[in-house]
């Protein structure tokens, strides 16, 4: 497969990079929980996203990481307006689209695209690759010069697939090739922003590398901005200029790559980085922080700081006052942290493991006693 | 002198020094398109209390192999040949009834997807208790106590109350722990964990791997860990088998495989992963090309269509002769030992920084 495909068909000029393409303020999404027999009534809410602020510049990639269930996918679907926000504001290219109707969204729809996690489930098995990629053009009534078929063949080439595969079906492709088809489909409408929700988690490392390279190429050469959601911290680091760390519906730390990976301040970011295993059997140098088992619920989030039930630095203030997301002394511009008692900006090893899980601590003590 | 063991009745089976021994395993599926050779002559061993990591490309036969050990393939379209010996007992020819008895007690599996493996209709506690009643003949009360005990052991807080929760009331990490509790409830001697942490973020992943390790230390369980995450392998496995196109292409200790790999496919795998410390300006280096068809595997070395070192092997052996994997530490590749070492040190290792 050619990794060196050139992009000599660079389309229309882009907004200058550095300009805010997407801006999100106070974004909220509550899912109602209904209860009651016969008469369903609202008994509570899942506060999936609860007051999130961030922006993405044109041509930039913002990585998003955080625990399962912390609201990453929901954020992605709010931004693409597949979901209606409960509160807050989403503006795209200076235009408020928070509650835009389908019709108002139509011209923007083509500019914001989504790539999904599962390359097997997200492609219709009965459609040829050609009609899958041409689909969005048809729906949006777009007729590129030279015709749709020519554009599809062009796109296949851009993503490193053979244009002759036009009439093949998805099952004839490997996982990595299928994910490329998904990328070609997302590129069909010449987007300015792509929300990629775990685009490589289901793929093995070699195929992962193929797809990440491809996405990076379209980002750099076509100037497309990304919201890149993933579990793998090394991949996020590789792909994103800035990174947002989410915890239980909120962003707890956000900043440029060097700040987040080199000088993180929020205890949760420290925990995340210390848990990421590197493929080196000798790599025991880094600190290890193991979090307690009881993940708090987004239905009843803890008062004050939401991380306090698992935080080793928590004090009384953490229960009463919610820490604002602000720039701390010594931090680079744009590096914001929501914590009353931040950690030192270091990733150096700790003296001792921090074990926050009582059951785990008990098991380990027992293991230590019986050598 | 009384003879306590029956010398003839229980002949020592081949390879019995290992707790689990897989020899020349073949698993083939009859499909409309032809015969899929999913596992094509695979051998490996696992000792008591040890962890074997299995890595390899998507579709290389990792899951199929382990389903064969557990006897979970549909016999109607599956042909299994070769030898699987678990603690002296041959499994490939065993009756479904025998296998059923062994599953849960002697060997058990943690499936990749906890949501589909746990039933939404029964409480977590009941699903953990059921195999315990079945295999250990425990009463309902005993089994419930055992379920609480297991939930506690896998680190679920307030197990006495959580035991009555339904799976959807658990978070992803808690469900995965519940599955592990279910797999461990009868103290199985062999646990097979198929991508147990892929869907989880790194903090939950670390918790689960720590738990598996701690439990292994407590009860001497043998573990097969299938994953595409080499970071996970580095921190949990003792030995590693690298699979490619239904075969083992390299075998060694975790240190051998990650520090001095010998097979060009293993080099490619290690070269593909981004590291937290690697330069962000250099593109990742995937293995070029795509995996071979399992319907018509290519002759010779199955990796030759993607291998950069074919020319360094004399003659046309890469395309004509299938390299064999020696017993113990080694790799199935025609390159000489010196070539493997030199290429790795000169060309591969510098790229892994
Ligand atoms: N349609 C829905 N109805 C009710 N609750 C929902 C719905 N969608 C998501 N949630 C809840 O919202 C929270 C956030 O979910 P979301 O899918 O955004 O998490 P995530 O960060 O993407 O997690 P993961 O890493 O596991 O994909 C979870 O508690 C989830 O259970
Ligand atoms: N029941 C079946 N019928 C036909 N082919 C099958 C069947 N089950 C698996 N296969 C094929 O056997 C091969 C090996 O599959 P297996 O699930 O073992 O791969 P794997 O190594 O576990 O991959 P992954 O990392 O993606 O889980 C694949 O090509 C698969 O398509
Ligand atoms: S605000 Fe308090 S509880 Fe929250 S992360 Fe900081 S120290 Fe921990
Ligand atoms: S046998 Fe030949 S083709 Fe196969 S891995 Fe070795 S050098 Fe490459
Ligand atoms: Mg998600
Ligand atoms: Mg599998």
Automatic annotation (TrEMBL), chain A:
Protein name in UniProt: Oligopeptide/dipeptide ABC transporter, ATP-binding protein, C-terminal domain-containing protein
InterPro entries xrefs: AAA+_ATPase, ABC_transp_ATP-bind, ABC_transporter-like_ATP-bd, ABC_transporter-like_CS, Oligopep_ABC_C, P-loop_NTPase
Family, as annotated: Belongs to the ABC transporter superfamily.
GO biological processes: peptide transport; transmembrane transport
Presence of keyword ATP-binding: yes
Pfam families, per database record: ABC_tran, oligo_HPY
SUPFAM superfamilies for the chain: P-loop containing nucleoside triphosphate hydrolases (SSF52540)
Keyword ATP-binding in annotation: yes
GO MF entry, a single one: ATP binding
UniProtKB/TrEMBL annotation, chain B:
PROSITE patterns tied to this protein: ABC_TRANSPORTER_1, ABC_TRANSPORTER_2
Domain of life according to the entry: Bacteria
Annotated Pfam families: ABC_tran, oligo_HPY
Subcellular location: Cell membrane
GO MF term list: ATP binding; ATP hydrolysis activity
UniProt-listed NCBIfam families: oligo_HPY
SUPFAM superfamilies: P-loop containing nucleoside triphosphate hydrolases
InterPro entries (UniProt xref): AAA+_ATPase, ABC_Ni/Peptide_Import, ABC_transporter-like_ATP-bd, ABC_transporter-like_CS, Oligopep_ABC_C, P-loop_NTPase
BP-aspect Gene Ontology terms: peptide transport
Protein name: Peptide/nickel transport system ATP-binding protein
Signal peptide span: none
Membrane topology: Peripheral membrane protein
Residue ranges of domain ABC transporter in the record: 20-270
Gene Ontology CC: plasma membrane
Oxidoreductase as UniProt keyword: no
Main location: membrane
Keywords, in A-Z order: ATP-binding, Cell membrane, Membrane, Nucleotide-binding, Transport
Membership in a protein family: Belongs to the ABC transporter superfamily.
Record flagged with keyword Nucleotidyltransferase: no
